[in-house]
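Researcher: I'm preparing a figure for a lab meeting and need a structural model of a single chain. I don't have an experimental structure, so a prediction will have to do for now. The sequence is pasted below. Please return the structure as tokens so I can convert it later.
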Amino acid sequence: MIVVSSCLLGEDCRYNGNNNYDRRITELLEDKEIISICPEVFGGLSTPRPPAEIQGGDGEDVLEGIARVIDKEGNDITKNFIEGARESLSLIKEYGCTLAILKAKSPSCGSKIIYDGSFTGNKRVGAGVTTALLKKEGIEVFNEEEIDRIIAKL
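Model: Understood. Here is the structure written out token by token.
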């Protein structure tokens, strides 16, 4: 069983009400059992919603209480992101998933690079909140930009 970001599967759950549908991912997984997640929606955030970025670190730092998730309007939505990560993990454990394909650069799902918290488009090395929690629990996380690595794992 593989967990996949809902937006990559075409669900309109992005902050702006759109999706990040990736045909390569859906074709690659068409004969696989998958579970679709959107941690931000699981955490109680609406669609659409203001964009959010992690300030003061990355997802690991958020889980440790060092960094915060702030939306572009200045609201602290850290607890929503943590709750969404926990809900995602609970579902993943329930179904016994060991591999995840999550949206690159997302403050929830990013696995290698995230936005730096300045809302200027600048990026930094780091993981999103959900990815950080999943990795702590031994779940292997990829993003849609790592298609060759995903194919090698399937």
